[in-house]
Specification:
Non-ribosomal Peptide Synthetase Peptidyl Carrier Protein, Chain A, mainly alpha, 100 residues
């Protein structure tokens, strides 16, 4: 059974407890995409969660996450840059830096 999509309020609450405030709306979009692609509840995510090791993503799911983020935010993440984004925190920090 798939998990319900987190509400904006759920995502805001998670972000206020887990990541720096400067991450902004890109982080919220990122979290929504991660839970959607991986089919996980938001409560299973931690900033330190690694996609394959902790969140049990197969080898294509991180690529799906990157592609969905690129579409949602209208930016391009290079293959080299994407290969260095192994955790939720890595991805959020990268997006926060790119969008500032």
């Amino acid at each position: 059974m798939p998990f319900p999509h987190p509400s904006a309020l759920d995502i805001d609450e998670w972000m206020s407890r887990k990541i720096p405030s400067h991450a902004g709306p890109a982080a919220a979009a990122c979290l929504a995409i991660i839970v959607d692609v991986l089919g996980l509840p938001l409560s299973e995510l931690e900033p330190s969660s690694r996609f394959t090791e902790d969140l049990r993503a197969d080898e294509l799911e991180p690529v799906e996450i990157i592609m969905a983020i690129e579409d949602e935010l209208g930016l391009k993440i290079s293959d080299q840059g994407a290969s260095q984004l192994g955790s939720v925190a890595d991805l959020i920090a990268h997006l926060a830096q790119r969008i500032q």
